[in-house]
Sequence to fold (355 residues):
Amino acid sequence: MAISPTIFILPTGIGCEIGGFAGDALPSAKLLASASGCLITHPNVMNGGSLSEKNNNIFYVEGYNLDRFAKGEIGLKSVKQQKIGIIFDSSIKHEILIRHLQVADACVATLGIDVDSYVLTKKPLGIVIDSRSKGISGGLIKNPDTLIEAGESLIDKGITAIAIVAKFPDNLDLIETNTYREGKGVDPISGVEAVISHLISKFLKVPCAHAPALSPIELNENLDARAASEEIGYTFLPSVLIGLSKAPDLIELTDKNEHITLHPNQIESIVVPSGALGGEGVLAGIERGLNIISVKNENILNIDNNNFNYPKLIEVDNYLEAAGLILAIREGINFKSIKRPLNNIQELTSNNKQS
Fold:
């Protein structure tokens, strides 16, 4: 059976009903990967705090580079194993740092992951949280240069993939945080997490992902099941190291690309939540004539199907239906043949000829 390479996008920080929490879109990703035979998605889909999975059908690609791949700027190369280095924000408290180092040792000892070394930033990163913009999670880094410098020092020592652990403010809005934990709000830190990983991706061009360093918070007995994976360990680092362990190399496209495993020209479809159709990856897919499968998945954005007149934009009710559609594409089955009513074929006349 031929594969049908598919990009799966779930923008972070917009409160998606599925995918707005740590790893709660992983079952959907596994289903789409099974249907397509090859799925390309970003870390916040796969990262579930202490929980994650290795899946040979899924390419783990940070969001900035996922957009570059969708635009046809880079290819992906499968690897047996990445050599991972970790950047730790120098403002992380000693006890929390030790917890994260123990996670890294555990991933080496128990999972066989190659976590080679770590570095502390020369200056605190200075993470600032800002979620005031229409409810969308956001923020900034006060000292981005120190992050890039730390990454460069790891790459100079032969590191091929980078995990970043940043210290997040202790004074996070507890009302906002608990609202999120109870399944009613947007992840308050996810927006600035994307800023951190995008920065490394853009300037260092290696696989990367971020795990926040947070102080423990009190037990919440009203915890939503979708947020539960974030409550069961000391750190979010395990899923990041698992994902990066076999993340594909990022290959700049040239005239000679003998070593590329997956070329952007092989992509057939992009799966994205309805309302979130304005991102770079989706717009690039439309420009390149790909199938855009828009899944009803409640979020706070409103750039939906009504904003586009694109014949290959298909709306479905859920990820189960999206998987069936991808399987039909993979098998060369006209999905209109399965839907009812089934229209008769039409005579081509001068009135309906396409230009």
